[in-house]
Amino acid sequence: MNQTIYPIGIQNFEKIRKDGYLYIDKTALIYQLANTGSYYFLSRPRRFGKSLLLSTLEAYFQGKKELFEGLAMEKLEKEWKEHPILHLDLNVEKYDREEALLNILVRHLNQWEDLWGRDERDRTIYDRFIRVIRLAYEKTGQRVVILIDEYDKPLLQNLHDEETQTQLRNMLKPFYGVLKSMDRYIRFALLTGVTKFGKVSVFSDLNNLDDISMREPYAAICGVTETELRTHFDEDIHTLASALERTYEETRSLLRKRYDGYHFVAGGPGIYNPFSLLNTFKYMRLSDYWFETGTPTYLVELLKRTNYDLYDMANTETDADVLNSIDSTSQNPIPVIYQSGYLTIKDYDPRFGIYRLGFPNQEVEEGFVKYLLPFYTSVQAAKTPFEIGRFVKEVERGDYDAFFRRLQSFFADTSYEAIIGRNPERDTELHYRNVLFIVFKLVGLYTQVEYHTSNGRIDLVLQTDRYVYIMEFKLNGTAEEALRQIEEKGYALPFAADKRQVIKIGANFSSETRNIERWLVG
Asked: DSSP assignment, residue 466?
């Protein structure tokens, strides 16, 4: 029986080390971080080990040498000085009003002042923060270490509410700005979060932070690399292979496909999702562990509010300036979707500084696209797997009429208000493209789909064991025109020698009826 204790949900370094939990040694990177600079920011998706990283730094700066026995840090650090620590965790509150943020800041200030002293003349939270940093330094003779966990939680919770977000931002901005003004008293500071709000946001007064989110030396400071997987989980992979009735190599391939694929640096190592890996080895089954712990409602609402083309989202090309910062006034949802872990770096063109993004792995792609369907159609979330299962079975048995009738039903029950925004013609076209993208992305999880869109038309090739479907969708044209396009463009030629049956389908979507008007098989 496997005796490994997996630290699922355990974010305290001391507890992990004392209670015998598995720990993947990141302390060489942590030593490098702590001794080559002073002010840092790190963005990583949720449940990627940011809180554990801060807890490890806290133990290090508290001089707790015994906790690092057998780790790289034990040999690297010689002095083990104890520093005063101010650790602010914003991950535990619901920030639906200004008072909620004020309360948690005051609560932490009270705790710090109980340790290091207070001055009743300080009235504002900013004055109190300044004072407690100086008092901690004077009381210990050591400069202060400041650790801020999920600095952006109040802002992320209010992406949909500009007024509340502005109030919270105006409170956080000068609070974080204290770090710059108190430089002489500070030994080290690290702020972590999911996103980086920039420009007119909380970092505009704190321009001395070194953002290591996309820095190669720290690409693997959170998460699990391929080498770490082999080193720490080799026995687990063998056990999982037996449970799945697969070979060792097949099981590694399944793990890689489902949980690997995060790239935080162009050309950097692929990173596995640590939360999903740990749960997989604890329960010895593959599942969507990470996705199930937090639904991306705010991201989907952002996509809908900005009328974003989902095809563009899944095939985005952008630059580092966009990826690195979220401007709270921007209508571009891509930075927050990337920084939240639903997109990752797939390729990089150094000549033009352009990144190509895509879904990191199967867990994220399948979970995210399934989650999108009820927001764009009348399908209830609980019925999504059943509807997609029916789609797949229909195309697998060659029943294209049933497939198209089901597709029609997805459009038929969608209200006019759910589709139309400021530009009715554009929004109707975008809605039809988005629904088709979602459906064929999901069908493509079980079959082979190549999907392309441009200038009001969509063409795709869908392959099963018995059939090759070549489909052309027109907007406000005719099914005859769509079918003729397939012939004129020679879309079927690559399958001329294929033994499977080739089925060519032209379809037309009418913006007047907001549905598929007709389909024709050639």
From this structure: S
CA gap 316, 357 in Å, rounded: 5
Q: 432 versus 343: which is more confidently predicted? A: 343
Q: State the maximum Cα–Cα separation within the chain, in Å, rounded to a whole number.
A: 86
DSSP letter assigned to residue 262: B
Q: How far apart are CA 180 and CA 190, in angstroms?
A: 13
Query: What SS3 state is found at 423?
Result: coil
pLDDT of residue 424: 57
Please state, as a whole number, how many other Cβ atoms lie within 10 Å of the Cβ of residue 245: 8
Question: What's this model's pTM, rounded to 2 decimal places?
Answer: 0.91
- The one-letter code for the residue type at 342 is Y
CB 159 within 8 A of CB 298: yes
- Could you tell me the CA-to-CA distances from 311 to 147, 392, 410, 451, 454 in Å, in that order? 39, 21, 18, 9, 10
- Where is mean pLDDT largest: 200-204, 324-328, 376-380? 376-380
How many angstroms separate the CA atoms of 509 and 248, rounded? 48
How far apart are alpha carbons 441 and 359 in whole angstroms?
12
Tokens standing for 141? Answer: 């003779």
pLDDT digits (tens, 9 = 90+) for 216-228: 999 999 999 999 9
For residue 166, CA distances in Å to 89, 155, 205, 332 come to: 21, 9, 15, 18
244 to 31, 129, 226, 281, 476: CA distances (angstroms): 39, 54, 21, 12, 49
Task: Please state, in angstroms and rounded to a whole number, the distance separating the CA atoms of residues 434 and 475.
Answer: 13
Distance CA 66, CA 68 (A): 5
The amino acid occupying position 69 is E
- 131-147: per-residue pLDDT in tens? 999 999 999 999 999 99
Task: Collapse the DSSP code of 469 into the 3-class scheme (helix H, G, I; strand E, B; otherwise coil) and give the result.
Answer: strand
Note whether 321 and 276 are within 8 A (CB).
no
Spatial separation of the C-alpha atoms in residues 83 and 86, rounded to whole Å: 10
Q: What radius of gyration, in Å, describes the C-alpha atoms of the chain?
A: 26
Alpha-carbon distance 108 to 111, whole Å?
5
Place 456 in a pLDDT band, splitting at 50, 70 and 90.
low
- Tell me how far apart the terminal alpha carbons of the chain are, to the nearest angstrom: 59
The DSSP result for 43-93, as a single string, is E--TTSSHHHHHHHHHHHHTT-GGGGTTSHHHHH-SS-----EEEEE-TT-
Q: Which residues are 328's β-sheet partners?
A: none
